[in-house]
Every structure is written in C-alpha cells, then in structure tokens.
Amino acid sequence: MPIRVLLVDDQPLLRTGFRLILEAEEEISIVGEASDGHGAVSSAKRLLPDVVLMDIRMPGKDGIEATREILAWAREAGHAMRVLVLTTFDLDEYVVEALRAGASGFLLKDVPPDELAGAIRVVADGAAIVAPTITRRLLDRFADRLPSTREAPSPGLERLTEREREVLRLLARGMSNSEIAERLVVSETTVKTHVGNVLTKLGLRDRVQAVVHAYETGIVRPGGAD
C-alpha cells in the first residue's frame, strides 16, 4: 500500500511543488492538501493520512497547534499518524515546540526531492528523521528561551541506570549509535538496547523526543561541552 500523505502549507506554489515531487514516487500517494492549521486538523481526521507534511508558520492556527491536535486525536482514535514538519532553520524558532507536540522530525524547505521522499518513508515506518546534530544545533540555539527548560526535572530519570543516563547524554550531544558504541567501548547492539530502555522508562516515542527530554531535564545544557 502506498504511503498516504497530506500536504499542509499556506503557499499554493510550495504545495504544488511538493505534490509534483512526491507524486513521482510509486510508494507515495497525496491524499489531500490544506492551507492552514484548521484545515490540516479537519483534513487529517477525514482523510486519515499516514504522514502529514506540516508547515509551521501559517495564519490562524499554526503548525505546532495543528500537530498537537492531530496527534492527540489520532492517539485517541487508534490511528498511526505521523507529522513531519517543514521549516526554514534560520527564521523558525518554533521547531522545538513542534517536536514537543509530537512531530516525528523536521526538514528544511529546500530539502532535495529524494531526501524529502526518503524522509516520508522513514517517518511512515515509525522512526524519526531529524539528524541528531541538527537537533542539537536547534536546541543549543533555542532551548534557553523555552519556559520548560527552566522547570524542575520531570519524574522518570531516577529509573535510568547510570549507563542509560550516559547513553542519553551522548545521544543528546548528536552521536549516532555507532559513535556512542565507540565512545563507551561496547557493541552497537548494546547501545540500541540502552536506547530502547531509555525510551521505555521515560515514556518517549523516539530519539528526537529523547534529545528534547535531555535538554528539558538538565541532562545536557544548551551550548554545553561534550
């Protein structure tokens, strides 16, 4: 079955461009379009896409709130729906909030066509597409402006072992599983096990949420050294 995609952007030209790119992919089917957050929410409920390609900055309801509403509804309705956010890195300071809202990652709007299609496939499979190094750059730049980074650590960290905390810290610093394995002198399989334990114990969906959680709870600090 093709991956069902809903396009959400307030610029018709961009939606047309994304449609042309994605309709050339046999495994992807565009099931609808929306020009704002309100339309995104109603279209997602009606069309049940596998992936929503979501702009952040839109008039009225923005992409962050739309993402939050769509994924909350999807969880309650029992639908496996994912949101992939599109942003302009230099200008958009809300991408971290989109990740908190449950988005599975983000891409820049000038992403090459093959990477866009590949990202949709990855997200549809339930993984996160944000590169750890880019996640760190965003958090280093914006996390100190977000109120929740100054709140007390959330419960759950005490359930992690010391090694799991170390893995979470390295993951948040932008390291891949192989790089973490090399740093800790363990196998990559062992690292995957630790990452899985971290996600389960903290109730997180993927690595992206784990990185955000690490910053929010003070495991790592914006701009901090490795």
Layout of secondary structure:
Layout: E1 3-8, H1 12-23, E2 28-34, H2 37-47, E3 51-55, H3 63-77, E4 82-87, H4 95-100, E5 106-108, H5 113-124, H6 132-142, H7 162-172, H8 177-184, H9 188-202, H10 207-216
Provide keyphrases for this structure.
single chain, 226 residues, alpha/beta, Rossmann fold, Arc Repressor Mutant, subunit A, 2 domains, 5-stranded parallel beta sheet, 10 helices, 5 strands, 49% helix, globular, NreC/VraR/RcsB-like_REC, DNA binding, DNA-binding, WalR-like, transcription regulation
Strand order of the largest sheet: 2-1-3-4-5
Shape label: globular
Number of domains: 2
Average residue-wise pLDDT: 84
Within CATH, the superfamily of the largest domain carries the name: Response regulator
Task: Output the radius of gyration.
Answer: 18 Å
Number of strands: 5
Describe the structure.
The chain has 226 residues and is of the alpha/beta class. It has two domains: 3-130, Rossmann fold (3-Layer(aba) Sandwich), CATH 3.40.50; 149-216, Arc Repressor Mutant, subunit A, CATH 1.10.10. 49% of the residues lie in helices and 12% in strands. The chain is built from ten helices and five strands, in the order βαβαβαβαβαααααα. The chain has a five-stranded parallel beta sheet with strand order 2-1-3-4-5, sandwiched between helices. Helix 1 links the parallel strand 1 (3-8) and strand 2 (28-34). Helix 6 (132-142) runs parallel beside helix 10, helix 7 crosses helix 9 (188-202) and helix 7 (162-172) packs across helix 10 (207-216). The longest helix is centred in the first third of the chain and has 15 residues, at 63-77. The modification 4-aspartylphosphate is found at residue 55. One of its GO terms (molecular function) is DNA binding. Residues 153-218 form the HTH luxR-type domain.
